């Protein structure tokens, strides 16, 4: 009798989910950014107008019963839970964690550049009760555009190093279904946060456009650096990219100190951000040292 091999569904494999996530992230980003830009694109007089004057009024009821700040915080927390759990599942755990915190440090430097540009523009429109506070770029749009574009790329890179049976492991299938639910919640939270950032008067269409542009440019720069690493025959040696990252962080910190009005406003970078930045550097260095130790031991074993 003929034996019929069972057909394995490709609907929920890790690779198929990462590809769908990449397309969905781009669609959601286009919608979230396109909404405020299209609303004001052909209305030059209102390019710098806040949708709501938050000093005199407040937005109406929302379809998600969570206030603006907690919605943003919970969305970011869900994203980090997803990424950390994913990093513990893939075969190349050290590289996944290294790339995750490397990207976090890269965005820290990007955000310091954002503060520098804010100080340079000195645009206090839509700052609400924070009169005179530089508000010329939307940090939320910068952050979520960077994440929505970069996360699928990061996931795809980590999946490349897995064994051929990775997608067929039972616990992987189950875990990726759970991560799909978290991704869906993250998408909803991201779009809702970006929608409220504009429609609740935190930023004008111009500020949204500037913040998104910075996030996209930062993403392109990081992807260019990672592509150079992948193309290099010595990609196991991370010295070059570490030097680039260190130079970017120090340059961004210098720009922040030069252009942010510390005397008038005070520091925008708090102690918690600096502690998180130092912790991320510590994790990246530990991963690099661990990778070098592993590579050295492997070479000695082969000899």
Task: Describe the protein's architecture and organization.
- By secondary structure, the protein is mostly helical.
- It is built from nine helices and no strands.
- Helix 1 packs antiparallel against helix 4, helix 1 runs antiparallel to helix 6 and helix 3 runs parallel beside helix 7.
- The N terminus is likely disordered.
The radius of gyration computed from the alpha-carbon positions, rounded to a whole number of angstroms, is 22 Å
Q: What would the average pLDDT be, to the nearest integer?
A: 80
Low-confidence stretches: 1-12
Counted by DSSP, the helix tally is: 9
Kindly state the percentage of residues in helix: over 70%
Per the principal axes of the C-alpha atoms, what is the gross shape?
globular
Task: Give the structural class.
Answer: mainly alpha
Order of helices and strands: HHHHHHHHH
Query: Beta-strand level of the residues, as a percent range?
Result: under 5%
The termini sit apart by: 50 Å
Notable features of this structure?
single chain; 303 residues; mainly alpha; globular
Summarize the structure.
The protein is mostly helical.
Secondary structure: elements and pairs:
Blueprint: H1 14-41, H2 68-89, H3 93-121, H4 139-159, H5 170-199, H6 205-231, H7 239-259, H8 262-265, H9 271-302
